[in-house]
Amino acid sequence: MVFFRSVSLLSKLRTRITQPSSLNNSVRWLQIQSSSDLDLHSQLKELIPEQQERLKKIKSDYGKVQLGNITADMVIGGMRGMTGLLWETSLLDPDEGIRFRGLSIPECQKVLPAVQPGGEPLPESLLWLLLTGKVPSKEQVDALSKELRSRATVPDYVYNAIDALPVAAHPMTQFTTGVMALQVKSEFQKAYEKGISKAKYWEPTYEDSLNLIAQLPVVAAYIYRRIYKEGKVIPADASLDYGANFSHMLGFDDPKMLELMRLYVTIHSDHEGGNVSAHTAHLVASALSDPYLSFAAALNGLAGPLHGLANQEVLLWIKSVVSECGENVSKDQLKDYIWKTLNSGKVVPGYGHGVLRKTDPRYTCQREFALKHLPEDPLFKLVSNLYEVVPPILLELGKVKNPWPNVDAHSGVLLNYFGLTEARYYTVLFGVSRSIGICSQLIWDRALGLPLERPKSVTMEWLENHCKKVAA
């Protein structure tokens, strides 16, 4: 990964770069020398012109370079394997897993600022990394935390819009409604209606994106308290960081739970651009829909059982195992239950991935958290046993390219341990987290002037005729 270079000589003189010996050679540590270095918007104003020129050069020098061949299987199979999106904030490797601006999850845990040494990365630090390509200092992260808190005020009409829905409405339905209500104050929409040059599109997009990221935990916590806690809302705590404040507003103040929420938000933030929620946001935003409209569309995709709703399904399935077999279920009993699930035409939730071909690093870091904080939890032990039992069975079927667990296989058990037991709500947590990656990319979409997305579609008749001609 090539990180951004400053276009300002003064900025270069202000910044002393040192190199962590054990990390990717492209990682940079920054020493702060001025107040402008603490401001994320100022950093982007310096970085964007260089990246705009970089993209122009790629287009002019390499625009006709072929990236692969499209097959009929790809067209029929949901475009899997097609390289067709520019997504700067993260890259998913089938074997290594996700890298955020070139950094793996273990590397992020090592270099991104935390509340205390050895703690989990602060989500704000990942937001800075995704937007700038640079590892922030603790001072920069603290400044960003303060800014997000200042943007977190939610108008009353947003709560009124949510309250118009039945309390029994799915949490994701209420969450999407809240996001659409927030759209009323879109800075991008106002600027576009007044007339704004294309070169400045990124600035109101930035304002909307940071406002949205800041407001989402407040809206999400309101929904949780409305549905499950008789509407008793807990106000934000101005002394807490993004992840900890979200946990606090939900009603969970155990220091270990605060750490879990920081980890959860960070690892769920982005997973390159081809997944349903990220791609939906990118597609909708390519029509110059503002970040609120684009993210609301992304949430509707995230709510599907083949995407974000899976983390709800995993815990429900695990509890069904316990209900039928007991907490001390043997591996033989697990095998029988897994075969029962598969033979009924269902999948084992939390296993397999459209791109990954090894155990999801997001699963691994959650397992490490569990080994540290809840090693004797019965459900964690069950998840560990499933890790040993499920993959061989899926391999035996011979139809699964990836029999290994993904992020959803573990997250629900951790949340359940600390008291957040309402599985129907879990996808909302996922949605709050995913805003960081989606909004970071939307800012760069506008900064780079990426165009309206419009792939070509074909009919089955066209496909049949084309393939016959090729075969002949």
From TrEMBL:
One of its GO terms (biological process) is citrate metabolic process. Keywords: Transferase. The lineage of its organism: Eukaryota, Viridiplantae, Streptophyta, Embryophyta, Tracheophyta. InterPro entries: Citrate_synth-like_lrg_a-sub, Citrate_synth-like_sm_a-sub, Citrate_synthase, Citrate_synthase_AS, Citrate_synthase_euk, Citrate_synthase_sf. It comes from Papaver somniferum. One of its GO terms (molecular function) is acyltransferase activity, acyl groups converted into alkyl on transfer. This is Citrate synthase. NCBIfam families: cit_synth_euk (TIGR01793), PRK09569.1 (NF007128). The active site is at H307, H353, D408. Belongs to the citrate synthase family. One of its GO terms (cellular component) is mitochondrial matrix.
